[in-house]
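Sat 14:20. Reprocessing the chain from the morning session after the first attempt stalled halfway. Input below, unchanged.
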Amino acid sequence: MRLEVNGTPQELRATTLSDLIDELGYEAACVATALNGHFVPLGLRGATPLSEGAKVEVLAPMQGG
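Finished this time. Tokens:
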């Protein structure tokens, strides 16, 4: 399926947001996610389906001051 992840088009096999996090190798508990501009909490990722052309943002916390 063709998706846009953090602004970059990608071809992925994931069908849910949780699958996408796993496929891309992120640590699920350590990232925040949004689908088409809407925040998706960790507990709902497995029940959040992806569709062709969806825009996904995966944000990891940064250290610094």
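The chain has one domain: 2-59.
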